[in-house]
Amino acid sequence: MNLRLTVRVGLLVALPALVAAINAYQPPTFTIAGRVTGGSGRHPLYVALWSDQGFLVTPAQTIHLPPGTEGHYRFIVPSGRWGVSAFENVNENGRLDMGMFGPKEPNGFWREFRGHHKPRFDEIAVLVDRDLTDANITLR
User: Could you tell me what percentage of the chain is helix, strand and coil, using 3-state DSSP and rounding each to the nearest 5?
Assistant: First the structure.
């Protein structure tokens, strides 16, 4: 058998195994979980997962917690920088209402933010490279 034929046969044998290995690879995922406290318990809670893309415009994921529930949430994410926010939807219109000086409804971030400006992603984001089960949010 000549060298070219040997290389071709070897590639034909190895290629499907390589393609299968690439397709089977799944990047590791991690849990971000916690509890939302500080709400009245009379209104729904909304919890949003944020990436740097679409921050404060379009969340990567959202969770709706009905009134009277415990306030526990859980997201499954790939490794990276993530932020989590929550608010109590007092008027039950499905969105966080804003006033002249910021939000009108109780709200908060997992990584607490207390600035006098609109938060930037870098101010509230945390590198997630392991499971985090204490990502608690206190509404203010």
Answer: 20, 35, 45
